[in-house]
Write a structure and sequence with these properties.
6 helices; 5-stranded antiparallel sheet; 3-stranded antiparallel sheet; 4 domains; alpha+beta
């Protein structure tokens, strides 16, 4: 669901974009956005990205606020219906209003307005003819109210409005990176988007637009304790604790393995030194022993030679 606001009048109009992830391409989705008045949508085929922007004089959001003016394409009377409040329902809805007949608001006897949900179930029926004060709020359900301005209505008039609790039920915005708080493709590059960092006013903290309403911030804070099927019914906090614990265990395991490898390396180096290592002092002693043995042998040979010479002279 995308809401388009005409800046000059402040009129908001919510439109539903139907997406089938199994069959719709990015270009198919872009064409649906492009068909809406006030929006421009293109696809970068090289990067595979969807670019969505508002035309001059318009702005867009996905905040899910109730339109201050419903779809009047089937409403020809001069009396204008409007819906107000903050929708508190658990699922997206669409409400429509129709009349019991033609008449003048606040004047015609027994003139009533019936409001139905998207399943056709009657939510409320209110007298808007004789006795009704134009502009008086009439309660509906899930935090919404309905009122009519002065003027006339026809029996065939019908007006409808979307009441949105989840503007991105298909996950398109998250998948394409539209309307997110962050930029980046990996942990090292994650950062707060420039548009948000430089102007926090771009954050839709309210769903009703009423000063002091921080319902969107409350919904954001509630994500802390929400359990998600994709996380095996764990919360963000529990998932982060698991990730942190797993990372710590992996670091500890890697540290132990590194210490074991270092110890093994030291043992191998000691074994190598025991087999092929050379002690200079020890080798010098061996050389001196050989030298002393050689000197002793030389003296023995000299003595024998002198003895033989003496014997030969006697003979």
């Amino acid at each position: 669901y995308v809401t388009i606001t005409e800046n000059a009048t402040g009129n908001r109009s919510t439109r539903k974009i139907s997406i089938n992830p199994a069959t719709d391409s990015l270009s198919d989705i872009a064409d649906q956005f492009e068909a809406l008045t006030g929006l421009t949508s293109t696809v970068d085929t090289v990067r595979g990205t969807l670019n969505l922007s508002a035309e001059s004089g318009y702005s867009l959001d996905f905040a899910g606020r109730v339109d201050n003016q419903p779809d009047l394409s089937l409403h020809t009377g001069s009396a204008v219906p409007s819906f107000h409040g903050t929708f508190t329902g658990g699922v997206n809805e669409q409400y429509s209003v129709e009349y019991s007949g033609a008449g003048t608001i606040g004047v015609t006897p027994n003139l009533s307005a019936t409001i139905r949900n998207q399943s056709g179930v009657v939510i409320a029926t209110h007298q808007v003819g004789e006795g009704y004060q134009a502009g008086t709020a009439l309660s509906l359900e899930n935090g919404l109210s309905f009122q009519l301005s002065s003027g006339d209505v026809n029996a065939t008039d019908q007006a409808s409005v979307f009441a949105v609790t989840d503007s991105d039920s298909t996950g398109l915005l998250a998948a394409t990176g539209l309307n997110s708080f962050f930029d980046g493709v990996d942990v090292a590059g994650f950062r707060v988007r420039t548009e948000v960092f430089e102007n926090p006013g771009n954050i839709a903290g309210t769903k009703s637009g009423i000063t002091g309403d921080a319902s969107n911030f409350a919904s954001l804070a509630a994500l802390r304790d929400r359990r998600f099927g994709g996380l095996q019914q764990r919360t963000f906090v529990e998932e982060m604790a698991d990730i942190t614990a797993d990372a710590g265990l992996q670091v500890q395991t890697a540290r132990v393995q590194s210490q074991q490898a270092e110890s093994y390396q030291q043992r191998l180096e000691a074994d190598r030194a025991a087999v092929s290592g050379v002690d200079v002092n020890e080798e010098m002693l061996k050389i001196m022993e050989v030298e002393r043995a050689y000197q002793a042998a030389a003296r023995f040979i000299t003595s024998v030679n002198a003895t033989l010479d003496e014997l030969f002279r006697i003979v």
